[in-house]
């Protein structure tokens, strides 16, 4: 029976992202679990930091959420709907992703920025491209080749490209780990600003505990493919 709500009140919203008993096992001959029995939820506007040692399964978790890999157990819900019921192209419009390195397409910076919306039949004007680039400190870069960009500039383009789809969720897979210290600080500050201004819902994988403490509302700690802690940074990091 559905839950009844008092007159004049809206029904409760689903969490934006929810993982239920989520797992992934490699096929034979390996038969190794990358992730097992993962359960957590992410509310709208929340930044969830995901931390843990190398090889713990953090990147594997993001790949399952965006269906770059498929789970062998459990499921991922996006606003209450099983992501397996959503067409992959539509899912990746609603769930954007930024990787450790900026994998930009051949062509120009502007063509990279316009790629997502044009895949969905939406027009993107030159003025819109220029405005988006100006917001991330790359005014005048639209006609440049990605091959001419520094690592930090490439990540700014990758972030802008992901956000042009107006995603409901942004997955960040260690977006500063491949950068030098100056570029790292610039990208971290840029992400913090964009998250704040847009009220973005993010899952942010990082090895940098200071970064996690500074920017995450809650932390998920993964070790050996399992969740070992979930809560506020000040409580989780002091364990």
Could you explain the architecture of this structure?
Keywords: ATP-binding, Nucleotide-binding, Phosphate transport, Transport. This is Putative ABC transport system ATP-binding protein. One of its GO terms (cellular component) is membrane. GO terms for molecular function: ATP binding; ATP hydrolysis activity; phosphate transmembrane transporter activity. The mean pLDDT is 92. This protein has a 6-stranded mixed sheet with strand order 6-7-8-3-9-10, with helices on both faces. The protein starts with 16 loop residues before the first strand and ends with a helix. The chain is α/β, with parallel strands linked by helices and 239 residues long. The protein has helices at 58-65, 88-94, 109-119, 126-135, 151-163, 181-198, 209-215, 233-236; strands spanning 17-25, 33-42, 47-51, 73-78, 81-82, 95-98, 169-173, 201-205, 218-223, 226-231. The chain has one domain (17-101, 153-236): Rossmann fold (3-Layer(aba) Sandwich), CATH 3.40.50.
Q: What is the overall number of helices?
A: 8
Major β-sheet strand ordering: 6-7-8-3-9-10
* Biggest beta-sheet profile: 6 strands, mixed
Structural class by sheet pairing and helices = alpha/beta
CATH top level assignment: Alpha Beta
Rg calc: 19 Å
How big a fraction of the residues is strand?
15-25%
What ranges have pLDDT less than 50 throughout 5 or more consecutive residues? none
């Amino acid at each position: 029976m559905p839950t009844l709500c008092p007159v004049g009140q809206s029904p409760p919203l689903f969490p934006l992202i929810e993982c239920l008993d989520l797992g992934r096992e490699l096929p034979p001959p390996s038969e190794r679990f990358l992730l097992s029995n993962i359960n957590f939820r992410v509310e709208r506007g929340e930044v969830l930091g995901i931390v843990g040692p190398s090889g713990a399964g953090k990147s594997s978790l993001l790949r399952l959420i965006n269906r770059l890999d498929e789970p062998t157990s459990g499921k991922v819900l996006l606003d209450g709907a099983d992501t397996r019921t959503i067409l992959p192209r539509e899912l990746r419009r609603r769930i954007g992703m930024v990787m450790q390195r900026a994998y930009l397409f051949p062509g120009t910076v502007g063509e990279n920025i316009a790629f997502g919306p044009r895949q969905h039949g939406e027009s993107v004007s030159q003025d819109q491209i220029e405005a988006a680039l100006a917001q991330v400190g790359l005014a005048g870069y639209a006609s440049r080749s990605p091959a001419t960009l520094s690592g930090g500039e490439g990540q700014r383009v990758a972030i802008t490209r992901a956000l042009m789809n107006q995603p409901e969720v942004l997955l960040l897979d260690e977006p500063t780990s491949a950068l030098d210290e100056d570029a790292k600080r610039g990208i971290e500050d840029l992400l913090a600003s964009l998250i704040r201004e847009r009220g973005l819902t993010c899952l942010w994988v990082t090895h940098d505990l200071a970064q996690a403490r500074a920017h995450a509302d809650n932390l998920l700690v993964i070790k050996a493919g399992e969740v070992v802690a979930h809560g506020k940074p000040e409580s989780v990091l002091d364990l």
